[in-house]
Amino acid sequence: MHRLLIQQLEQHFGSADAVPAAMRPFVEAVSAAYVKADADFELLSHSLEEISGELIQRNAALREERDEQRALARRLEDAHNQLLQSEKMSSIG
Fold first, then answer.
1. Coil, strand or helix at 43
2. Alpha-carbon Rg of the chain, whole angstroms?
3. H-assigned helices in 1-93
4. C-alpha to C-alpha distance for 1 and 22, rounded to whole angstroms
5. According to the model, what pLDDT value does residue 22 have?
6. Predicted confidence (pLDDT) at residue 91 exceeds the cutoff of 90
7. Which of 16, 52, 58, 77 has its CA 20 to 30 A from that of 67?
8. Angle between the 3-13 and 24-92 helix axes, to the nearest 10 degrees?
């Protein structure tokens, strides 16, 4: 029987064993629902941890890619400026 249900039964009946016989099928169904909910919660928690880890890795990769693109843009700008400077010098000379 699920621990939370046991706590509730002890609070209301004094002990989990004091539940009337007519209520036992209902109590077992509630216990099964609690157990399933716990299993579902664990599965969702694990899935969220996996997704979070993947997102963190992808975010780091995107930052690295962005930094590489910025460096490339700076190199292109430098090359462009050098080309303009060369053209100016050749037009003077």
1. helix
2. 34
3. 3-13, 24-92
4. 17
5. 95
6. no
7. 52
8. 140
In one-letter notation, the amino acid at residue 5 is L
CB 66 within 8 A of CB 48: no
The answer, as to whether pTM is greater than 0.85, is: no
Instruction: Work out the average pLDDT over 55-70.
Output: 98
Chain position carrying tokens 């303009």: 84
Let me know if 9 is exposed, middle or buried by CB neighbors in 10 A (0-12, 13-18, 19+): buried
Record the tokens describing residue 49, joined without a space: 């941890």
User: What is the rounded CA–CA span in Å between residue 27 and residue 63?
Assistant: 53
What's the domain count of the chain? 1
Q: Which long-range contacts (CB under 8 A, 24 or more apart) does 59-64 make?
A: none
Instruction: Kindly state the average pLDDT of the residues 66-84.
Output: 97
Cα angle value 83/85/86 (rounded, 5°): 65
